[in-house]
From TrEMBL:
UniProt entry tagged with the keyword Magnesium: no
Record-linked NCBIfam families: DegV
Protein name, as recorded: DegV family protein
Superkingdom assignment: Bacteria
InterPro entries: DegV (IPR003797), DegV_C (IPR043168), DegV_domain_contain (IPR050270)
Lineage per the UniProt record: Bacteria, Bacillati, Bacillota, Erysipelotrichia, Erysipelotrichales
GO molecular function: lipid binding
Keywords linked to the UniProt accession: Lipid-binding
Amino acid sequence: MFTGGNTMNIAVMTDSNSGITQEKAKELGIFVVPMPFTINKESFLEDITLTQEEFYHKLEDENTQIMTSQPAIGDLTKYWRSALESHDAIIYIPMSSGLSGSCQTAMMLSDDEEFEGKVFVLDTHRISVTQEQNVLDAIKLVKEGKSVEEICETITSHKSDASIYITVPTLKYLKRGGRITPAAAAIGNLLKIKPILYVGGEKLDKFEQARTVKKARKIMIEAIKNDIEKNQFDDYELYIAYTKDLDQAMDFKSEVEKTLNHKVETVAPLSLSVSCHIGPGAIALAVAKKYVK
């Protein structure tokens, strides 16, 4: 573990699964590694050569083949080397190891002689808006002059203090991505089932199902309320994430704030890596304990 104390110049880095755009990264003074896509055999990088609008246009075309992957080793190390030109150490917060192999790859790379003691990869078991919370908290801790050890310990010790629930309007994209069988998708669509997925800990699980989006939203709100009570969060933040439909997200924000009597901190689009598997019109509600003031 790095022992340089709090006089080190520490860089904060994440990947685009956090939902942090390249433009916002510049404002925050951090680094964001773009997630790669292959669309009809052509390579793209999220938010660099592929915008949200272009992505959904391609995704909604039945003849488009979209594949997600993790950043190439050479690309990741390029980002690390670039950041280390102006920083003594990097705290890298990628998406959950339970959802992608990119976190394990980064951890193995950080053990190489070139990066050992300089790059610290944190598996916080998070994605999207809760992953972004980790990043923003890391920035605050760096500005407070905390050491690498203190920042890593603070963030990883709270990795379980968050949960996300997602509902999708159609099973079509889960079927296309191989997440469910064609037969299950056909039956689900026939019955107008709206699955509610849970992201917490190390994986994505089916939580419950509803017959309408309205009912699914109510189930998500109740689930978040139960998580707050069960985990005894005395101070927490609520987040909403969505795919393509901002109007629906803002309407849901009003419903959440009225029901839970608590401000929604952020309404943000889901990363394209997630959107690829759930399609447009999906909506998510998340809660995370507030542990950095």
